[in-house]
Amino acid sequence: MTVTVRFAPSPxxxxxxxxxxxxxxxxxxxxxxxxxxxxxxxxxxxxxxKAAYAEGIAHDLAWLGIRPDDTVSQSxxxxxxxxxxxxxxxxxxxxxxxETPEELERRRKIRLTRRLPxxxxxxxxxxxxxxxxAFEAEGRKPHWRFLLPNFSETPFDPVRxxxxxxxxxxGPQTVDLASMSDPVxxxxxxxxxxxxxxxxxxxxxxxxxxxxxxxxxxxTGAQIVLFEAxxxxxxxxxHHNLLTTVSGxxxxxxxxxxxxxxxxxxxxxxxxxxxxxxxxxxxxNVAAAASMQELxxxxxxxxxxxxxxxxxxxxxAALSRHLIQAxxxxxxxxxxxxxxxAGDRAEAFWLAVRGNLDRMDDALDWWRIVTEAxxxxxxxxxxxxxxxxxxxxxxPAEPWDAGTWRAWTDxxxxxxxxxxxxxxxxxxxxxxxxxxxxxxxxxxxLLGREETLARQS
Length: 457
What we know:
It comes from Nitratireductor pacificus pht-3B. The structure is a single chain. With 457 residues, the chain is of the alpha/beta class. Among the domains are: 80-164, Glutamyl-tRNA Synthetase, Domain 3 (Glutamyl-tRNA Synthetase, domain 3, Alpha-Beta Complex), CATH 3.90.800; 329-371; 382-454, Arc Repressor Mutant, subunit A, CATH 1.10.10.350. It has helices spanning 17-32, 51-64, 78-90, 101-113, 129-138, 195-204, 217-229, 260-265, 270-279, 292-298, 313-325, 329-338, 346-353, 362-371, 382-392, 404-416, 421-432, 440-454; strands at residues 4-7, 36-41, 70-73, 94-97, 143-146, 162-167, 171-176, 184-186, 209-213, 236-240, 243-245, 309-311. It has a three-stranded parallel sheet, covered by helices on one side. Strands 4-5-8 form a three-stranded antiparallel sheet. It is elongated, with a radius of gyration of 32 Å.
């Protein structure tokens, strides 16, 4: 069997790191099993779904390193859902209900006062054709519920009916169908809810494993039954824990909180996002993986905790910084060239400055300092200005190398008596305009003697 997974976002907003967690769990699982990854846009909500969001989601996934084997949209597949709905109706498994939301709420409260579970009592199954016609005459349109097989003789007397599965993430799971209401599959306006299109697509696309957030655990029992009702074996299911903010709040596409697009714009490295999204809330150490293959080697679905994982953006920034500071020039070269950093000095420059970068774009500031002029914010006192001029008199002759800085400062120390911060800081400010940064032993050969002399005033 070929492992086939899917990531099924609704294109109603930007995906966030919590959504990326689901996408990455599926992608890495497929990679581990040489399987297929399908991107499925759940865009049956035509009013809220936007093509621009779908394009943005695809771009976000590509930035993370996820490249689907196939991409489909539910909006192009309504004929398949209609056919499945008609088959269920013909089998007596999809039945029309005419209650208003207010009527359903009243019944729910009555059941609660009687200390009964607040599940739908299947009153619609008792309606006669005349009663249905009367509702239709009033202008009511039915919503359609799927009849769960949680009874032996009469649907009005449900009995405990356990659905069991071996969860890819959580291990053995059990859901009692008697504790659930028959799920609504079609709204009164004729639009589909998530469940029926999702199951039809999983069957049609050959999805073998459904890996998603643990907020779907209770839905799984009903979905397994729906697969069987449509004549298909259910896939394997896996449910991972969800990400929350540090304060415990859920993430939302609508708010844009921690969206992948915003993290990318902030200069966060994609492998930092992927590493944290996958490893947080597991027994694995949260450390930045340098590649998707390395992350796949570390990925273990069963290592995931049952409780929600709190996501701290500061931890993400630290992982991103680590990746940049450890990045070899061969990997950075293309991105540096896109910033205009190229030429004979590019590799030596990268090795000199990478340890001081928080984001890749920060390299451009140091490139300008090296190739153009010191940061104008750096100011010297008159006393230090005079000291720098004297220090320039002791510059060694070229060629320069990593030992030039030590030779120069030793000579300046002997001539002026200055040492420590009093010696090094004025020279750093004169050469870079900044009070901290890369080692001057590495920067000095990049500047060269002529440019160094030009920076004494």
